[in-house]
Fold these 2 entries.
Entry 1:
Amino acid sequence: MKIGSSLPQKVVNEVWHEQTILRLLQLVELPLLDVLLDGRGSGSQLRSVDSDPDILFTCNYLDREILKAFSDSQADDWLSAAVDCLEFLPDQMVVDASRNLATCPEETEKCKRLLYDTVVKYYNQNREPLLRNHFFDIHTGITEFLVNGKLEQALEAIQLSLKLLDSRSREELRRLLCFMAVAAVPTEFRLQKDIENRMAVKRAFTKAIVCHKSLAKGKVDLLVLFLLDNQKDVFKIPGVLHKLVSDKLAYILHGRDPDLDTGYTFCQRLSSQECSSTVQKTTKDELWTLLRTIHENPKLSTKEKKRLLGQFYKSHPDVFIQYFGDCASTVYT
């Protein structure tokens, strides 16, 4: 974004994070905001061998490069997507896969079986799901959209929630979904004899993507299949968010108060006097409602009603007198 080039990167990042949260709150009702406010992406970045010369000549690095070369030589989207996933696997699993592949370079189906089993083995280990559990309320809101057929809202909410993930988790999820999509094609390499490929990848990788005991299995499956079917779109930035960020950065750049002119407003600005007056009026209205409920409740016995009215009078005599007028002193005695 050109307009952000004149601002410190930290400011630009904070604006993206803030506006993502604000837009998400417009779509999904959340009981608590602490998770969003504290959940800034802090995951590690993808390993770059160019920035770490110490690993350039290690066996592990060579095995990874051999796998990449193997993938490039095959001109097969399935193999390329599988090898891309291996970047997130531990070195030993990558070494084993690389050396086993060397024994079957011309047997494509055997290579695919080996790679698929390797990826499945890794993602079936006990590990935190890629869709973090501290975003559970967001995921619940998204599944409600899906259940009710609100697919556009579901897609935007997913796009926003993925924007809040740390860069490593987001890239790992992107590669996994890409591999799942290719492997799910019915005419591709058969993953299991008894079920179609689409259901096989869902069964194999669902736990690695989202896993929470409070989210029903049916909703989990619905969410994973939606991610699978829309894997090319879920990582795009919503146009609404682009505009929000662009507008706010422009106001900051020109020294104006962006909170007055951009984004979403969740409250009305009040002076201290207006705030005090509003609090007093709201309190009085609620007390008046409570008093009327006690006074007009036919289920309360006369004795119980007088007891409650007496307690109310001791705590709020002014409201009590305004409500009952001249007969206030006889109501609770």
Entry 2:
Amino acid sequence: MSWIRENKRSLIHDFCVRVLKSGPIPSHVVIIMDGNRRFARKNNFDRAVGHLRGFDKLAEALEWCWDLGITEVTIYAFSIENFKRSQEEVDCLMELMRKKFAQLMEEKELIEKYSVCFRVLGDWNRLPLDIQQMIAKSVAMTRNNNRAFLNICISYTSQDEICYAMRNLAEGVSLGIIDESDISESLFEKCLYTKKSAPPDLLIRTSGEVRLSDFLLWQSSYSVLSFVRVLWPEFSRWHLYSAVIFYQRNYNAVQKARTSMPTDQSQPDTDCHPVQKLSEQTAVNEPGAGKDCNRQELQAQRQERIGKFLLYLEQKDDDRIDRLLQSQDNRDDAAYNQQ
């Protein structure tokens, strides 16, 4: 099945969409697609068939989300913990990834028509090199699309993501790009895999399991959680509509909680470097306009450091994609010369 479906809605579905759109619609929905293996056992299918049916369901779910005006979807496709499964099943999942990313690149015109941006979040280094190269090509091909966003979490856990962000911050400090005193919650969030995404509004988990399984733990603090007692390949449009209604019922309470959350503050003086602390103390002791001027100068310097650091991280991501694309080109050239 194609990544993007172009089916026309029935009259009853069109009516339901209009009714749901009369209330708040989540902008960002995340889905833990659980139950593929249980679906296969339940129907006496091979596990590979269960995973394939799961992908087919994803294509349907994306269509339903975009019909509702949900512009960003994040899916938990493959956890780092999944590497602990049998080698046969892991190999099967890797092969399915190869086929689906190859299909994605074949559907370039359709994807550009709907301007869908694909992002792959997780530790790519744990994946086979050829899959890394296919991911890089898919991400590069769609990076300028901006009408809809699909974030695919592969080789991902939230604990690994948090460690990744901490390593980025430590690297920035060790290279002298930022100071320790520049680190804050907002800067930490800009170092996560999800730095380009808004926090999720609605999290859906299928199969009846009531846990997050190490998925987007930092980002989902104020998400509405909907646990659906149906296996992922059996998930229907009506289950999505029900989850959106549940979100709408809890919308005001969540918004109230979000607005009451304290805003991120700059680090207190006790967290600053001695030199910076002395500079800020000097600024406090200076009278009038001089004090304000020095304080503004220190803040401007901090913002300049943070800006350079974020550009550095963005360049690192771009360089990784460029290296993978170049290595694929070299491999293709070598294969051509051997013919």
